[in-house]
Design brief:
alpha+beta; two-stranded antiparallel ribbon; 241 residues; four-stranded antiparallel sheet
Length: 241
Amino acid sequence: MCFVIILVVKVLMFRNVENIDYDYLKEIENNIKNNISISIQDITYFLECIVYITRIKIMDDDPYLDFKCDLAQSIICHYLDDLNVTYFPNVTYKAITNTVIGHSFVVATFKVLEKEVNYLIDPTYIQFFKSENCTEKKFIVFNGIVIKTPDPGYFIKYEDRKFINDFNYNGFGILNENLARIYGNSFYNTRTMRMDISFDELKGSTYINSFLKGNEKLSTSREELISNGKYINLDIKKITK
């Protein structure tokens, strides 16, 4: 049996966006809604704020945002839908393979510098980086079959740690080959019902092609979000949980 030891990522606190400039944010929002190309600075600030607002709304005193991925996905997708943004709601056991740890995330396409750019948005990926769940001891093998694995954070290579720390800190990143490879393989190696615990890799392009087909049904309706104060409305310049 061959096993590649992957060092766990140390989780950073996620980005805190203080004193949100709602006038600037509304300007970006309007440009996006009207399919007007925006700058890298614009999209970065926009996503920093939207991810931060989403995290605050779902936190409930849990900085790791455990089991909140479905809600986060719904909040983000309904908001993007109102801005006429093309988005792809994904779940890992369909986008990657059916025996991996289940997790919901979003890919969205924005017009940046006159080009269509895909972003992976995942405010709750940080839940998979608790040290106690990212240890070899979390592997359970019965009769030669893997029936449980450590969390995805365990399967981050040493050389990818800083990159994925930054992604966790921000909660989003451009869906390029590198991010797709690291992110996708972290889930791919949580497969169960296999015969060994060796580290396997797929190319980033494989994940990108799959993620851009995501069409999962959202767990929470727009009406439910509004009723529960979870919907993103930039006209209300106060973040409520």
